[in-house]
Design goal:
The structure is a single chain. By secondary structure, this protein is α/β, with parallel strands linked by helices. Helix content is 30%, strand content 23%. Helix 8 packs antiparallel against helix 9, helix 16 crosses helix 17 and helix 17 packs across helix 18.
C-alpha cells in the first residue's frame, strides 16, 4: 500500500523525575517518623514547616473528602461517624479536622510510643474526644466494622517501597485489617503520591474485593513553592463481595470538582495517573525556564478520555523581550496539522518567529471531536494553556489567540473502517489555506502521516445551465466538492518519482512512448493514475497487498482499472519473485511506495525485506537494462539507512538520491546499466522537454509542478 509522506516529528524529553523515595519523604515530612509503616520517631525538620509547604493543598482536600464521608447527604440525621487514622505520626491533619468541626470522634494509631505520647500531650486539653493509641495497624485490637472512615496520609507509600514478597505480604495484612474494621458503605481514604506499583496494588486489591475505587487528583494551591509532584486521594468504598456481581468500578477525578471518568481497567487507571504526573513535571519545567526543546502533550476529552488537543510549546529565547511579546496561543485549523509549518519542529520554530512571541503554544484539533468555533475553543483552553505560561509573564497580561484566516478550518470524515492488514483508517476532506479542499487517507495507527491525498475539484455548471445571479445558491462552506483532480500530485515524493522517468534511456520521446511500469503500493492510487492519464502509451501494473485499499481508492479517490491499468492483490515480495522466475527485462520503470507495519524498526518505508540484496537482485532481473527503479525511502535510523544504501549500490551501479524538503522521505533512483551518470544539464533539458510534452492544450496541469525543479536537487551516490 502507499507509504505516505512522513513529516519530521519533534522529540521531547521530560525533566528528571523526582525519585519516589524523595517524594514520599517530602509527602510525610514532619508529619510522621521513619519507622516501619511510617510510624516511629519524629522527623528532624520542625513540625509544620514542610507540611505547610508541601501539603498546603492536601489538607483542605482531605477535610472536604472526610466531611462528605462523615456527614453524608445534607440534612441527613445519623450518628456521628468514627474516623480511624492509621500511622498518624505527628501530623496536624487530625487536629485540623477536629478544630474545623468536621468530626470529633477520631481515633489515631501509631506504633511509636514517643509519637503517641507527644500527640496525647498536644491534644489532651484542647481535643478531649480525640484519642491516640499505641497500636500496630497490621494487627489492630478493634472489633469488626467499627469505623466508617479509615484515613491514611502517606503510610501506604512509606510501606510499599518495593515489590518484594515480604513487602507485598505486609501490605496485604494492612489492607485486610482496614477492610475488617471498616463498615459496609464505609470508605478508606489514602493520600498518596501514586507511584505506579503502589496505585496498581491498591486498585487491584480493593477492586477484586468488590469495592468501588475512585482516584482524586488534589487541586493545586497555586503556591510556586509547592512540591512538583501532584498528590492524589484514593477513595475506596466498601461493598459486600457478591459472586457474579457487576463489573468492577474504577474512576478518576482529574481535578477536585470534576465529574469522575470511568476507566476500563486498573492498567488504564494507572496510565491516566501517570499522564497527570508527567504533566505536572512538564508544567514545573516550563514555569522555571525556557525550554531548548519543543515539548508536546495531549489534552483529552473529559467525556471520552480520547485526545482532544495536541499542544506543542515552542520557545524563542533569543527573541528580544518586550511588553507584549511574552506568550501567545496558535490554533491550527482542522486537517492542517500535518503541513510542514505546523507538523514539523522547524516549521513551528518559523511560525513562532513570524508570530513574534517568545513562547508560542500551538494547538492541533483532533478528528471526530466537536468544536464550538474559535470562541468556544478559546474559552475551553484559556485556563489550561495559562498553566504553560513562561516565567516572568506580567500579571494581568492579555494572552492572544492566533490562527490562519480567523476560523478553525473544516474537516469532514467521509468514511471510517477497519482493514485486516492496515487497522483502523479514515477518509476525510479538509480545507487548505487557499480555500481548496483535499481528500486524505490516514491510518489511525500513525495519525501524523497522510497516507494518500488528492485535491478536490469544485463542480462546474453544465452547458446551458447558467443561473441568474439572484437565483445562484452559494455553496456551503462546510460542504467540500467531491470530484477528484487527477492532474494534481499532492505528495512531493510522488512528483519526484514521476520526474525520475527522465532517466530512462529509451530513444523514444516521452510521454507518447510505450512504457511498462510496475508500481508496488496503491494507497489512494494518485501515482498510478497520473502515470496512466499523462503517459498515453503506458501500461501500468499495480501490486497491493490489502484489498481494502483497492476499495478505498476506487470509491473515494477516483481510481479505476482498464486495458492499461491492472491491480494485482498480492504481496509485493511474492509478485516480484514470481515475475523474476518467469522472464527478465519486463519493465521500463519499477516504483516502490509501500509502507512498513512494523513501527519498531527505524525505517517506515519500505519494509526491510524489500531492500535485502536477494530481493533487489530479483527487481533488477525484471527491469530493462536502460530502465529505472525508483524507491521511496523513509528511514530515521542513520546506520540502517547507510546499510540500505550500501546494499543498493552493490546491486545497481548507478544510484541517484533526491531529498524531499521538510519531510523524512528520500527518493532513490537506481539504474542497472553500465552507462555513467547523466550530465545535470542534460537531465534538466530532458525534464523541461517532458513537461512541455505533458502540458497539452485542453489537458489540466498543476502549474506548481515543475519537473526540472524535482531533478535540480538530485545527487549521485
Amino acid at each position: 500500500m502507499g507509504s505516505g509522506r512522513e513529516k519530521r516529528r519533534p522529540m521531547h524529553r521530560l525533566p528528571r523525575p523526582v525519585t519516589y523515595a524523595e517524594a514520599t519523604a517530602a509527602l510525610r515530612g514532619a508529619t510522621c517518623g521513619r519507622g516501619a509503616g511510617g510510624h516511629g520517631a519524629a522527623a528532624a525538620e520542625p513540625a509544620g514547616v514542610r507540611l505547610r509547604r508541601v501539603l498546603g493543598a492536601v489538607l483542605p482536600a482531605a477535610r472536604r473528602a472526610a466531611l462528605r464521608v462523615v456527614r453524608g447527604p445534607a440534612g441527613a440525621a445519623r450518628r456521628a461517624a468514627q474516623v480511624l487514622v492509621v500511622g498518624c505520626g505527628n501530623s496536624e491533619l487530625s487536629e485540623q479536622m477536629y478544630d474545623a468541626g468536621m468530626c470529633e470522634d477520631i481515633v489515631n494509631i501509631d506504633i511509636s510510643d514517643a509519637v503517641i505520647h507527644q500527640m496525647q500531650e498536644r491534644s489532651a486539653s484542647k481535643r478531649p474526644k480525640m484519642s491516640y493509641l499505641l497500636m500496630d495497624m497490621l494487627q489492630m485490637d478493634f472489633p469488626d466494622a467499627l469505623f466508617q472512615v479509615v484515613l491514611d496520609k502517606g503510610t501506604l507509600d512509606a510501606i510499599l517501597t518495593d515489590e518484594e514478597e515480604a513487602t507485598l505480604a505486609k501490605v496485604d495484612r494492612m489492607f485486610a485489617e482496614i477492610s475488617r474494621v471498616l463498615q459496609v458503605g464505609g470508605r478508606y481514604l489514602c493520600i498518596s503520591l501514586a507511584q505506579a506499583h503502589v496505585l496498581k496494588k491498591a486498585v487491584e486489591y480493593f477492586s477484586q474485593e468488590g469495592w468501588v475505587v475512585r482516584v482524586h487528583q488534589v487541586a493545586s494551591s497555586g503556591d510556586k513553592q509547592q512540591f512538583v509532584l501532584p498528590i492524589f486521594v484514593y477513595v475506596m468504598t466498601k461493598f459486600k463481595k457478591v459472586p457474579g456481581s457487576a463489573p468492577q468500578i474504577l474512576e478518576i477525578c482529574p481535578e477536585e470538582e470534576d465529574k469522575p471518568m470511568r476507566m476500563e481497567s486498573a492498567e488504564r487507571l494507572v496510565e491516566a495517573v501517570k499522564d497527570r504526573q508527567h504533566y505536572a513535571l512538564l508544567r514545573s519545567q516550563l514555569s522555571k525556564a525556557s525550554s531548548g526543546e519543543q515539548l508536546s502533550l495531549d489534552l483529552c476529552s473529559k467525556d471520552s478520555g480520547r485526545p482532544r488537543y495536541t499542544l506543542h510549546v515552542v520557545d524563542s529565547p533569543t527573541m528580544k523581550p518586550s511588553r507584549d511579546n511574552h506568550f501567545a496561543i496558535f490554533i491550527i485549523p482542522q486537517g492542517r496539522e500535518t503541513e510542514w509549518l505546523f507538523g514539523t519542529e522547524e516549521g513551528r520554530r518559523q511560525l513562532a518567529a513570524s508570530a513574534g512571541f517568545r513562547r508560542l503554544v500551538t494547538a492541533a484539533l483532533h478528528r471526530e471531536q466537536h468544536y464550538e468555533g474559535m470562541a468556544g475553543i478559546q474559552a475551553e483552553l484559556s485556563g489550561k494553556v495559562m498553566e504553560l505560561a513562561p516565567p516572568g509573564l506580567p500579571a494581568r497580561q492579555q494572552v492572544p489567540f492566533l490562527s490562519v484566516g480567523g476560523d478553525i478550518g473544516v474537516r469532514t470524515v467521509q468514511h471510517r473502517d477497519i482493514s485486516a492488514l492496515s487497522g483502523e483508517y479514515v477518509v476525510e476532506d479538509v480545507k487548505g489555506d487557499d480555500k481548496c479542499y483535499f481528500r486524505r487517507l490516514v491510518f489511525l495507527s500513525n495519525r501524523n502521516v497522510v497516507q494518500s491525498e488528492a485535491r478536490l475539484l469544485a463542480p462546474a455548471p453544465l452547458p446551458g445551465q447558467k443561473k441568474r445571479r439572484k437565483d445562484r445558491k452559494k455553496p456551503s462552506p462546510t460542504e467540500p466538492p467531491s470530484a477528484i483532480d487527477k492532474s494534481y500530485l499532492c505528495c512531493e515524493h510522488h512528483k519526484a518519482m514521476v520526474a525520475g522517468l527522465c532517466l530512462l534511456g529509451s530513444p523514444d520521446p516521452l510521454p507518447g512512448a510505450p512504457l511498462t511500469v510496475l508500481v508496488v503500493g496503491l494507497g489512494g492510487g494518485s501515482l498510478p493514475l497520473f502515470l496512466h492519464d499523462y503517459f498515453s502509451q503506458a501500461r501500468v501494473a499495480v501490486v497491493e497487498i490489502d484489498p481494502s485499499m483497492l476499495e478505498v481508492a476506487t470509491r473515494w479517490f477516483g481510481f479505476s482499472q482498464g486495458d492499461r491499468m491492472q491491480v494485482h492483490i498480492s504481496d509485493g515480495l511474492d509478485y516480484v519473485a514470481k515475475l523474476a522466475a518467469e522472464a527478465s527485462a519486463q519493465y521500463d520503470a519499477i516504483m516502490f511506495d509501500v509502507d512498513s507495519k512494523d513501527l519498531t524498526v527505524g525505517m517506515s518505508c519500505p519494509p526491510p525485506a524489500f531492500v535485502e540484496k536477494p530481493f533487489l537482485q530479483k527487481v533488477k532481473t525484471i527491469l530493462k537494462p536502460e530502465g529505472v527503479f525508483v524507491l521511496n525511502l523513509v528511514c530515521r535510523d542513520a546506520r540502517l539507512k547507510e546499510s540500505v544504501l550500501a546494499t543498493l549500490r552493490e546491486v545497481f551501479p548507478l544510484l541517484y538520491t533526491r531529498r524531499i524538503d521538510g519531510e523524512v522521505n528520500e527518493i532513490l533512483f537506481c539504474q542497472p546499466g553500465p552507462e555513467g551518470p547523466r550530465d545535470p544539464a542534460e537531465l534538466l533539458a530532458r525534464a523541461r522537454a517532458l513537461e512541455g510534452a505533458l502540458r497539452q492544450p485542453g489537458r489540466p496541469w498543476d502549474s506548481s509542478y515543475v519537473l526540472a525543479d524535482m531533478l535540480q536537487a538530485v545527487k549521485i551516490l
